Sequence to fold (442 residues):
Amino acid sequence: MAREKPINAEVPAGGTDEERAAKGRTRPKLPRRPRPRRRVPLPLKLVGGAILLAAVFLVAAILGGGNSRNSVDGAAPLVRGDQTRPDSAIGVGEPTEELGYPAFATKNTTRVGGGDPAADAAGAALAVFPATDEAQRPAAVTLVDEADPEAAIAAAVLMAAPVRAPVLVSGEDGMPEVSAEALAALDPGGSGSTGGASLFAIGDVATPDGYPTRRVRAAGAPAMAAAIADLRDRLTGSPPGHIVVAPLGAAAFAMPAAAWAARSGDPILYAGRKKLPKATARALRSRPKVPAYVLGPSSAISSDVLREVAAISPQVRRVAGEDPVANAIALARYDDGDFGWNVNDPGHGFVVARSDEPLDAAAASPLSAAGTWGPLLLTDDAGTLPTALRGYLLDVKPGYTDDPTRAFYNHVWVIGDQEAIEVGQQAEIDALAELAKIGGRP
Fold:
């Protein structure tokens, strides 16, 4: 599809702030008065700390140093669910790698370098909602269970408009400190779009006091996904445009659905390989006019189950790749009217995560619903970029003929630390996303 104008066509002209100030300066400088110290907002402190860590991260990578997971002593401490809001702030220069805020970037990629999904979720949430003022805070946050990635993937739909609730990770025994710190920075206040709730708690996860909370409980991933879909309908006041039926017990194939749900508002339901769960069948029957898209190959959801879905829904189509990497690319490429990313040309955002870390799909989902709005792609190895992913990124590689400043650009978010995706693989992704000269004047 042709675009009317480049995404970067309207860049304001003019000099730097210093140059503009110099042109208008006619009076002599007055002695500078000492200014009272102001408290730096937590997200800005996290950014400052991340900048310092970036240099350390890069030097360690060049020298062949260890990875960040090995540099952090143990898991993040827990905050009990009945604890009040934490109000401590991390100072500039203190370790922020646990928080997962982007700590290392190339010209075409940005890494959310958390040591685990909780840190990745905190970093992604703060990247989308910097929270330095009220306008940059989400109205609500979704707390998902670290032990239930399938429910977390389904909960990504709450990131879609108008709810716009990013995901943070909690647990039944308490909330990781990294999540508590991010929640304190985000400070959701609720709104009409969230039904007045500041927190959506998925399952029996611990929640801090002081936040109006709406809890979703159900037995098993299919029933939980159906309950989340019901909540989505109540909050939006309308049925979805489509439903994604993802494979139960094959989370790597379900992962790409989280990004699409966050971007589109299409809820996720689950199907077994050989049987359609009763909760899913009921959810489909309650939305009789909504078309369904089955995500994953027949090895994950059989043709018999697809026929069960077709007996209920007015339209059923399968979107699939034979392995998790190919499956994610298939959804990124897919186009069926207003369903599917249809990312088959340059000028897009992308998110890359490990296929064996399904909770990262939910953690990173806000990045697919803001900024550069891109699909989730998967890599299955820390050091080696999969051949299929390399081919896809090469196929959508941007180029220009005469003027690179009027071209389309690609940007890629890389999720996880060096143990998840090594810097070498990130560098290869950067090269594939790089704007290339393809003709025109020399």
Remarks:
- The two ends are 28 Å apart (CA to CA).
